[in-house]
């Protein structure tokens, strides 16, 4: 009997190790898996007593919103990485009289755009695309030239809104529209752009639907699968998912969208387009998302920082836009990143202040205008000091 030599056994051991390492690297191909959290300094005044006082204040304000403004939904507020307020109000379904709970999932509407942006950033970190790449590099049949991934991210593509041109061009409203169908309509009918690319900011759902298509082309899997495998599951966002026609048959706590008159809002053929909207989630899962953005589990810190950097050539009310996030000054002088959403009976709002690791997450299934009063909450969370108020007045005077 012939035994393998020591050198051969050593070679096999090294080979197996290399193959194992390659497999692990492949499994992590879209993630950095760095749980190290970006720290923030907790001031001496933020004690258990002050946190409880803030909780009572927030509850007083949101209860007033419920009683006087008809607020209906769920809320989660954090300060210095600590949940200081979490509560559900009203009904998930007015017809069935089902109550909202903090486990209820809501359609995020345009708050979904930040997930699309991060999916693009993950692929960029892995060298699979560049922001200056043209759309044609990934969708060769795309008929509009001179548009880059960066311009899609920052709403400077100039493309017309698919939710409008599909109303005119989609032949059967009973047939669901897909992201590829949006591309096909643009190829076939070439709806006129609103303006030339990179000349001005114009909020574009079409741009983010195209970004979702690019994620599919680059990753080789459906956009919904990419989000689930590379973001939702790694972050243990167990109650977060993308819309599909099967949502209506799912079990679990899912809110129904309503009109402002509390009539049930039904879905339609546009709901199946993803990227610009279409994610359902809970306040707790969005808190997991918020906390993950202080780590490098998904993208490098410098990559994420660019998403929080303004891009608009001209700004209104000192607001700017990064990648899937609006950027605005707060009453206390800090800078927040945020996004709101409104779609088919849902109204949503998600604000983060990276300086003090605070977040304001509000999900509603009754778009009755009650979220228009959140300035009062921002004043509670970020009260203006005398110096901040003076600086704000000076900026206004200069304009």
Report what the structure shows.
- The C terminus is likely disordered.
- Helix content is 36%, strand content 14%.
- With 399 residues, it is of the alpha+beta class.
Query: What is the β-strand count?
Result: 12
Strand content: 5-15%
Largest sheet: 7 strands, antiparallel
Element string (H = helix, E = strand): HHEEEEEHHHHHHEEHHEEEEEHH
Quickly give the structural class.
alpha+beta
Multimerization state: single chain
Outline the fold blueprint.
Blueprint: H1 6-27, H2 48-69, E1 73-79, E2 82-89, E3 91-93, E4 98-99, E5 106-107, H3 113-125, H4 149-153, H5 162-169, H6 179-189, H7 205-219, H8 223-232, E6 241-242, E7 279-281, H9 283-292, H10 301-307, E8 320-321, E9 326-329, E10 335-343, E11 346-353, E12 358-364, H11 375-381, H12 386-398
Antiparallel strand pairs: 1-2, 1-12, 3-4, 5-7, 6-7, 8-9, 9-10, 10-11, 11-12
């Amino acid at each position: 009997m012939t035994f393998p030599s020591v050198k051969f056994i050593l070679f096999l051991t090294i080979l197996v190790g290399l193959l194992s390492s390659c497999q692990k690297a492949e499994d992590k191909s879209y993630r950095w898996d760095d749980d190290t959290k970006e720290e923030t300094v907790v001031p001496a005044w933020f004690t258990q007593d002050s946190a409880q006082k803030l909780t009572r204040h927030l509850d007083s304000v949101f209860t007033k919103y419920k009683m006087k403004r008809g607020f209906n939904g769920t809320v989660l507020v954090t300060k210095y990485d600590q949940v200081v307020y979490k509560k559900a109000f009203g009904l998930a379904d007015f017809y069935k009289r089902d109550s909202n709970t903090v486990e209820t999932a809501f359609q995020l509407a345009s708050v979904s755009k930040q997930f699309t942006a991060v999916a693009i950033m993950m692929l960029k970190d892995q060298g699979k695309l560049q922001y200056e790449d043209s759309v044609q590099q990934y969708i060769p049949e795309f008929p509009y030239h001179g548009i880059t991934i960066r311009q899609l991210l920052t709403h400077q593509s100039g493309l017309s809104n698919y939710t409008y041109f599909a109303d005119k061009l989609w032949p059967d409203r009973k047939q669901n529209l897909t992201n590829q169908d949006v591309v096909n309509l643009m190829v076939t009918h070439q709806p006129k752009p609103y303006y030339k690319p990179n000349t001005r900011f114009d909020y574009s759902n079409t741009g983010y639907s195209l970004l979702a298509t690019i994620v599919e082309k680059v990753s080789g899997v459906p956009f919904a699968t990419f989000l689930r495998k590379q973001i939702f599951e790694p972050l243990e966002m167990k109650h977060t998912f993308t819309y599909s026609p099967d949502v209506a048959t799912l079990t679990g706590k899912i809110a129904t969208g309503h009109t402002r008159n509390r009539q049930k809002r039904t879905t339609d053929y546009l709901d199946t387009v993803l990227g610009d909207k279409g994610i359902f989630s809970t306040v707790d899962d969005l808190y997991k998302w918020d906390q993950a953005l202080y780590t490098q589990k998904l993208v490098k810190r410098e990559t994420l920082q660019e998403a929080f950097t303004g891009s608009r050539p001209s700004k209104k009310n000192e607001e700017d836009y990064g990648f899937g996030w609006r950027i605005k000054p707060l009453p206390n002088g800090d800078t927040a990143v945020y996004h709101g959403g409104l779609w088919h009976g849902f109204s949503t709002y998600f604000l983060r202040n990276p300086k003090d690791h605070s977040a304001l997450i509000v999900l509603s299934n009754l778009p009755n205008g009650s979220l228009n009063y959140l300035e009062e909450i921002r004043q509670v969370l970020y009260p203006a000091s005398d110096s901040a108020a003076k600086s704000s007045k000076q900026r206004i005077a200069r304009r």
